[in-house]
Every structure is written in structure tokens, then in C-alpha cells.
């Protein structure tokens, strides 16, 4: 029995959405790829640091400001209480890589219908602009995030449904895999951010709880894969 046009379309979309994350991760590991993907690098950093910031506010800390540097790295500066528990520290650290994956999964799921796609694009664009006004305190962040926010809002208002759907799916996939932009980050004890050495999120979790950082890197990677796979199944469901 020959496949229907709808079935053929879903198969093509499934192939595309499986190829996109692999391509992005591979390109991010090269100098040329990092240059070509610079806007997505800035967006990945925003997702990551906002994950830390939102988790901090939820757990009783204060989100002071967000800095994004020209090389694409960034840091969320938080004001934490002196009696902050180990669990709070671990939750805030884990929300850097996991928060974007949750947001990305929701964006992918929103692509099922044109109305929810437009709404998701509008919310994302507005969130970029508003967060820049409230928390961002670096020139790179002001320029890049404002431009990205305006472009996404314009797409939500003027883009055709197929372009909107493709865009929200790419942005959702990118958010999910943003923790793998520097693939070794989850499996290292730290790295250089803005010219200073910082602990990795997995090292912060290890220090707060138990088990070495590489175990937490595996756990977080598995959770990201589960969120990505689950959201793609929902988005491509007949």
C-alpha cells in the first residue's frame, strides 16, 4: 500500500528533525561552524543562563544580572542566601542544561498546530526582549538578544505557517541540545567563561550532592535525549 501525502510529510519532517541536532552539535565543534552558528550560540547561552536564573528565583535566591560575552559564553550572577541548602545548589546548577531542554521540548510540541506555533514564537521573542531589559548587562547581550527577539516576533506576525513551524522546531531542537554546544562541558570540572575559570554545572552538582561530575553528565544527557525524543514523537504524531 502506498503512503499517503500526510504520512510522507511526517516522515520527511522526522528525518529533518533528527538530522538537525546531529548537524548542529557537529558544526559547533568546529571553528567555521561556530562562526556560522553564532546567533544560535548566543541563543543557547541565553537559554542556559536563564535556566539558572529562573531556578534561582524559584528556590529563593535572587537573579541579579546576566552577562553574555562576545565569544558566546555567559554567566548568570545570583545572590544566594547564606543558608542555601545543598539541594538548592544542585537544582540551580542542573537547571542550566535541563531548563533549556524543557523549554525546547515545549517549543517542539507547540509546532503541532499553527495557532500554538505562532503563540510560542511570540512568547519566545517577547521573553528575549523582556529578559534583556530586566537582567542583561552586557553590550553583546543587548544587541544580539534584542535583534533575535525582534526577528522571532516578526516571524510570528508575518511568517507563513510552514516557515513558522520549521523555525519553532529548529529553535526547540536547538534549545534541547544547547548543553552540548561544547560537548565536553558536561563531562568536565570547569571551563573559561569571560576570561575567568568557572566550575561546570555537573561539578557544582557533584560538590553539592554525591557521585563524580561525569556521572551527572551522563544523567543530564539521558534526560535531554528523553525530552527531545518524547517531544518529537508528540509533534509528529498524526
Beginning-to-end CA distance, first to last residue: 18 Å
Shape: globular
Number of helices: 9
Helix content: 55-70%
Overall radius of gyration = 18 Å
How many beta-strand elements? Answer: 4
Mean pLDDT: 90
Low-confidence segments, ≥5 residues, pLDDT <50? none
How many discrete structural domains? 1
Indicate the proportion of strand residues: 5-15%
By helix and strand content, what is the structural category? mainly alpha
Major sheet description: 2 strands, antiparallel
Sketch the topology as an H/E string, one letter per element.
HHHEEHHHHEEHH
Main-sheet strand order equals 1-2
Explain this structure to me?
The structure is a single chain. The protein is mainly alpha-helical and 238 residues long. The chain has one domain. It has helices spanning 5-28, 31-36, 38-58, 86-110, 114-134, 139-158, 161-176, 201-208, 213-235, and strands at 62-68, 74-79, 190-193, 196-199. The strands form two sheets. It has a two-stranded antiparallel sheet. α3 (38-58) crosses α6 (139-158) and α4 (86-110) packs antiparallel against α7 (161-176). The radius of gyration is 18 Å and the shape is globular. The model has no long low-confidence stretch (mean pLDDT 90).
